[in-house]
Amino acid sequence: MIKAAKADRTKSDRTRSEATRADGPKSKGAKKGRAKVGPSQRQLRVGEEIRHVLSGIFGRGEFRDPDLATAQITVTEVRIGPDLKRATAYISRLGRSDAELLVPALERATPYLRGQVAKALRLRIAPDLTFTPDQALDYAMKIDELMHRPEIARDLESNQPEADDEPDDEPGQD
């Protein structure tokens, strides 16, 4: 009786491992053919945590560098690489568009900031930080300005459907 149960178990284990082997190459081939769409959930989560830590440091203003001590810096986004070793923080200045001037000062403060991120987050490796001015707000303002130009507004109005094109007979009204 025990031998029969043992034989059945090894037979089921054998068929399970054969099924796994049979599915193995198919799934690997599917992964190779698939294009990487965007950052993983972990990358997004770690990037948001780094953004939160950096925003707290910039909010407290605890810098020895006089260029950074008085600057109001906003971290708009942090993108982190797939290996979690490199992070790019996009910064802007509150109410000003001269964030490029702060990049050299932030590069000088990078070792301090990296140490603060390492203390706050439990990662195997503290990521290398790079800072880039965020141009998204400037770009949005430029597009908004273009949309309000008279020649563009005229073109947009001429492309709008007329209100008279709607049918007069609505269901339920006679």
Give a quick summary of the entry.
This protein is α+β, with helices and mostly antiparallel strands.
Q: Would you kindly provide a written description of the structure presented here, covering whatever features stand out?
A:
It is a single chain. It contains 7 helices and 3 strands. It is flat, with a radius of gyration of 29 Å. The relative contact order is 0.10. The model is unreliable at 11-30 (pLDDT under 50). The longest helix is centred in the first third of the chain and has 32 residues, at 2-33. Strands 1-2-3 form a 3-stranded mixed sheet. The chain has a domain at 41-139: K homology (KH) domain (GMP Synthetase, Chain A, domain 3, 2-Layer Sandwich). The protein is α+β, with helices and mostly antiparallel strands and 174 residues long.
Task: Furnish the topology, listing elements before pairings.
Blueprint lengths: L1 H32 L7 H20 L5 H4 L3 E8 L5 E8 L9 H6 L1 H11 L7 E6 L2 H12 L2 H9 L16
Parallel strand pairs: 2-3
Antiparallel strand pairs: 1-2
Helix pairs in contact: 2-5
Give the key terms.
single chain; 174 residues; alpha+beta; GMP Synthetase, Chain A, domain 3; three-stranded mixed β-sheet; 3 strands; 54% helix; flat
